[in-house]
Amino acid sequence: MKAENRTRSHFPVLAGVLAFFACALMAPQPARAVCSATYNVPADSATITGVLTAIPQNLGGDQCVFVGSGAYPEQVVIQNFNTNNFRIIISSAPGATVTVSPAGGYAVFSIKNASVTITGIDIKPTGAVSYGVAASSANAVISNVNVDSGGNISAAGISISSDSSVSYSSITVQNAYGLLVTGSGSVVGFSTITNNTNGGPAALGISDASLNVVTDDYIQNPAGSAVSIFNAGDNTIFQSTVVGGGASGLVPAFDLQGNAAAGNAITKSVVSSPNNTALFIGFGASNNTVSWSLLTSNLASYSALELKSVSSNTITQSFISNPAGYGAMVSFSTQTTISQSTMTGGGGAFGLFVDITSAVVVTGSYVGGPTACYIRNSTGARIETSDLAAFPGGQALRVDGGNVGLSVSSSIVRGNAGTGISLDPNNGGLLKFSSVTISGAQSGLKISPQGPGATLVIASMTFQNLAAGATAVEFVGGTFVSTFAGVNFADASVATNVNGSGLSGGSRITMLDSSGPRAGASFENDPSNRVDWAGGLLTLTVGAPANGLIESADLNIKCGGAFTQCSASYSPSSFVVLTATGDPSYTLSSWVGACAGVSTNTCNVYMDSDKFASADFYTGGGGSSVTFSISPMPSFGRVESSDLSIKCGGGYTQCWASYSSGTTVNLTAIPDAGYSLGDWTGVCGGISTNTCNVFLDYSKSASANFYTGG
Q1: Phi and psi (nearest 5°) for 50?
Q2: Bridge partners of 649?
Q3: I want to staple 471 with a disulfide (CB 3.0 to 4.6 A). Which of 336, 448, 496, 523 is the partner?
Q4: Bridge partner residues of 109 (DSSP)
C-alpha cells in the first residue's frame, strides 16, 4: 500500500499539510498567564538546571521557565518528567538576552522528555560539545533560537526526532549538521541554516525519516552539500532556498539518495551551486517530484540536475540551467518524466543528456544548448510538444549510437545554422518522427547508417526558414527502405530537399505526399535514383526565359532574370495562374509547353500531371530569343546538349535553356547502366539514333524514353 500511495500526486496532500504547519509555526507561544506554574532564573535559581529541579515530576499544567538576561555556562538536561499532554517551556524573559554557553559536554540542551519548548535563547558553546540542542524525544518545539557553533559543535546544531518543529531560528555550524531530522512528522520553517563543510555533513540532514516539511527556509553550505535526504521518504521541501558549493568531486547542493528515498517533493524552491551539481537524485530514489523550482549550476562537467540509477521520478514546471555545463542529466535510470520545464546547458555540453536510460519522457518543455538534447544508449525515449534549440552551429537533437526506439512528436527543432536532428550510426528499433518542424538548420535531418532491425518512420515533417544553402534530409550512408509521408519543404530556404547521394545499394526512399515549393525531384540530389516521389502533389516547372520574368499568382514561382524560383508543387486538379512580363523594351512573343497557343500575358495551367511552361520575348526588331526544353524529365537516363546548357535526367535537373532564334541544338540521349534508348519524343520523335539535332526557329521541346533490354 505504501508504494501505491507514493505514486499519487503530492499537491492535494501538500496543500493541507502546509496550511496546518503554517498555522502551527505562526501561532504565538504560551504567555505567562496560561502557565500553571512559572519559574524565574536567576530569581528562583541561579541556573536553568536548578529551576528544573523545582518542577514536579508529574505535570498538571504547562510549566514555564523564564530566563533573565545573562550568560549561563551550563548544560541543560530535561528528563524524567511525566508531561501528561502538558509542556515544559524554557523561554527568555520579555526583553531579555539569554546566552547558554557551556565549556563542553554532550549538548547545550539535551531534551530527553516529550513536549518541551525552547524559545528566545542563544546557544553558543565555548568548548567542545556534540549538539547545540539534542531532542531525542518527540514533540519538541524550538523557536527563535540562535545556535552559533564557533567551531565547537561536532554532530549537529539542532537534532530533532518526531512531531517536532524548528521555526524562526538561526543555526550556524562548521563541520557538523546544522539541523538533523531523524523522525517523522516534523516541520522546519522560516529559519536560516548554515554549514561550511566540504565533504562532511550537510547544513540540513534528513535521514531515515518521513513526512517532514521544510518550508520558507534559507539553507546554505558554501563548501559542500546544503541539504541531504538519505533513505527518507514522503518529505517536502517547500518555498525554500538551498545554496551549496564544493569545488571537487560530486558534492551537490541538494543530495537525495537511497532506496527508501521515495515520495519526496521539492516545490517552489531555489537550489543552486555555483561550482558543483545543484540537485542530485540518485541510487535507488524513486517516485520523487520536483515542481515549480529553479535549479542552477555554473561549472563544466557538472549539471544543474542529475538523476542517476533511479526510477519513476518527475520534474515539472521548473527552470534548470548551467551556462558552463549540463542543464539536466539522466543516466542508468528508468521512467523519468520531465514536463513543462526549461533546460539549458553551455560550454560544449548539453541542455539535456539522456544516457543508458529507459522510458524517459520529455513533454511541453524547452531544451537549449550547444547540443540541446543528447540521447545515447537508451531505450524508448519520447519527446512530445517540446522545443529543442541548438546554440549557433550546434545540434538541436543528437541521437547517438545504441538507442533502441525513439519517438519525437509535435515538436519544434531549431538548428541555428547547425544540425536539426542527427541520427548517428547503429540505433535500433522504431525511430519515429511525427508532426515535427525543423527550422534554422544547415542540415535539417542527418541520417547515418542504423543498426540491424532499425525502422525509420517520418510522418508529417516541415522544413522552413533553414540556413542559406541548406539540405533538408541528408543520408550520409547506409541502406534504407523507408517512406517519408507528408513532408513539407515549405520555402526557398531549402536548397536541396533530399540528398540521397550517400544511400547504399538496395535503398528505396519514398517521398509520399510531399508538399511545398521545394518538393519534388527538381530539388533532390539523387544520382543513383534511390528516391521516389509519389502521392498527391504535382510539379509545375518553368523554363527561365531570357529578357523577361514568369511568376505565379501565389508567388511560389518567380523565374527569370535574378529570380530562380522556377518550380513548385501543387495539388491535382488545381489551376496555376502564370504571368509573363518582359524586361524594358521587350514584349511577349509566345508561350511554350503547357501554355503554347496562349496569346495573352497570363496563362492558366491545369495540373493533371507534372507540367512545363516557358515564354519567349522579343524587342520588335528581330533577333528574338527562344527556349528549348526537355519535358518530361526522362527516367533511367539523361538527355544533354553538346554545349552542356541542357543536362536533364539521371540526377541532373537543368532541363531547359534559352537560345537565339536560328540556333541548332545538338542533343544526345545517354541511358543508365543496363538500359537502352527506346525512342525520342517531341520534335525528335521518329529518330532512331542516340543523337538529335534541333533547329530552333521557335521554342521547342523533346524527351527520350529508356528501357531494359538489348
Answers
A1: -65, -40
A2: 652
A3: 496
A4: 76, 133
